[in-house]
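Risk register update: the risk of archive-format incompatibility is retired. Evidence:
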Amino acid sequence: MNSSLEGIKVIDLTQVIMGPSCTAQLADHGADVIKIERPEYGELSRQFGPFKDGESLPYECYNRNKKSIAINLKSEEGKKIIYKLVSESDVIVNNFRPGVMDSLGLSYEDLSKINKEIIYACGTGFGLSGPLKEIMGHESVAEALGGFMGRNAEPGRKPRRAPAAVADASTGLHLTVGILLALNARHRTGEGQIVDATLLDSMMWMQAWEVSSISNLDSYIESDSNPLDSGVYEASDGLIVMSGLFIPNPLKNISEVIGVKDLSKDKRFKSMKDIINNSNDLVKIIQNKIIKKTSEYWVEEFEKANIICSKILEMKDAINQPQIEHNKTIVEIENKDTKRKIVGVPVRLSKTPGSVKTFPPKLGENTEEILLDLGYKSQEIQTLKNNKIIE
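Archived output:
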């Protein structure tokens, strides 16, 4: 069965999370992704722990299904290799700071002269131009300048970064979508173009609901102060999260489930404004009931009453729950005597499904193979190695 992106060739100059998560999705769906890395060190995430069998687990999760070639891009011979790759590729992806690709002689203007159909995808912190373009893009900075970190704080506590790379991962998704859109446009125009996705814009998109409210109203109360929206409560055996948002009178339903008089008729909770102003009182009433029974009991009872409710799982429990196994969310890959469990393909297609087929490559594992495909002779490849142009 053919994959959706079979026949598409991608040059991958990305590092860490944002860029590699994009190119991993392209590779999962059949694109031939060639990862360009620095000789000796490789891409940055190879240095990040934890490690197993001497290899970086963070590196491995986003670099399956790819090939690795180690090239010194500051050398003229190294650049010639990239130019040859560009001449027969469809996409080149990078997440360097703006200006780095230009300094290497790899700007869009340079590469589009070699191949007018090349799609030039850039993942940056803040954009290819503008007052923040020189600032190094990073998850924490994107969350801070995107307003997210400021919202992620409890009263009396400092704001905290999200416990997952939300800006990086979402920008990787946007970069993937942009590449697919550009490939589709190329079918009509015959020309490539620049694709630009940023951490900052991705943070805004994730908060579009709040951005719309805050930018259009004179005053706005954050929904986190509404105990009916994702309120966290302690059951007898753990924590639950409960939301009553999609029915006319959720407080009435909640009251019936926990066995108290209809709280929607209590003058403290008559309107949403009253509920927010008196949220401490409401939380205390609900919590005093929730603590008496198990999380499983409350999930079942709230669901019956059309109130959204779930246990709050630790990661070790989350990855082992039956739905994860059913969805095949986590897959096992194998390379010789080495096995790894990693997150698999997050998007399922019925006729052209993606898959995780090959183990993440070691640094420069495919250098010779790739150069031979480009027409280099064995002696030329050995000379490049001797001159430390490739590894």
